[in-house]
Design brief:
- The chain has 4 helices and 25 strands.
- The protein is mainly beta.
- This is Gamma-D-glutamyl-L-lysine endopeptidase.
Length: 272
């Protein structure tokens, strides 16, 4: 059975990549996310699967009741967004490299911000005004941006910048993030491909034998959960135990999860 999260079919219209499925197909129309965070849902107005970020590229496949069925360009995740959260496509030049920032109507610290921006938001820089980067939507502190061609060197350091962020199921920002959202944010910032959910993340990278020593940046998987190895005997994860992004002792976390949730480590992966 096809995974609905990765199948670009709205229930009545599919993307041309499906081919020979006996359903109406479309090439879709390009668009991008115009909201700071846009909930990607399983159905119009339904439960949130994930969040997309400002500037994320999408392909719109269908529209219904004020919602658009889209396929995300960064990971192929499919779902429904509110149409008001979409805008015409634009070529991004930079990404937000700080946990959060703001978009301003003018290059002035005292100006009331238009809205927040979050890590990995994609922006089109068209000019500079002192310490400010100018975009078609407004101004952003240039120190909070990095060119798309300059990824972060250490995904774990990126994840560490979100320590203390509240836990949010399906969240993808410092305003609220879950275990797989944290991993995806960190790996995307480092220029590494990464799916959106932990079961999908468990299928990428290289499998590590149980006896292989772990190193910083490796991933450990339990049923429904993923954590980053931050160092010897130390994990970093967004978790429902502390309801935050936090460090945890590896042995303590393993014992706690096994005791309270009946789960053992299912896989150890290393990014390629």
């Amino acid at each position: 059975m096809s995974d609905r999260r990765l199948t670009p079919f709205s229930g009545r219209i599919g993307h041309i990549s499906l081919k020979d499925r006996g359903v109406p197909l479309t090439a879709g129309e390009p668009a991008c996310v115009a909201a700071p965070l846009a909930a990607l849902r399983a159905a119009p107005g339904g439960a949130m699967d994930r969040q997309l970020l400002f500037g994320d590229a999408v392909t719109v496949i269908d529209r219904r009741d004020g919602h658009a069925f889209v396929m995300a360009g960064k990971d192929g995740y499919c779902g429904w967004l509110a149409e008001q959260d979409l805008a015409a496509p634009r070529p991004a030049t930079h990404r937000l490299c700080s946990p959060a920032s703001h978009l301003y109507p003018e290059p002035r610290v005292q100006a009331p911000p238009l809205h927040p921006l979050y890590l990995n938001a994609r922006l089109t820089v068209t000019g500079e005004s002192g310490p400010w980067a100018e975009t078609p939507q407004g101004y952003v502190p240039a120190i909070h941006l990095a060119p798309l061609g300059q990824p972060a060197k250490d995904p774990v350091a990126v994840a560490e910048s979100l320590i203390g962020a509240p836990y949010l199921w399906g969240g993808n920002s410092v305003a609220g993030v879950d275990c797989s959202g944290l991993v995806q944010l960190a790996f995307h910032a480092a220029g590494l491909a990464c799916p959106g959910d932990s079961d999908l993340q468990q299928e990428v990278g290289a499998e590590l034998p149980e006896t292989a020593p772990l190193k910083r940046g490796d991933l450990l998987f339990w049923k429904g959960h993923v954590a980053l190895v931050a160092g010897p005997g130390r994990l970093l994860h967004a978790n429902g135990y502390t309801m935050s992004v936090a460090y945890e002792d590896l042995d303590a976390a393993t014992a706690r999860i096994e005791t309270h949730y009946g789960g053992q480590i299912l896989a150890r992966r290393r990014a390629l």
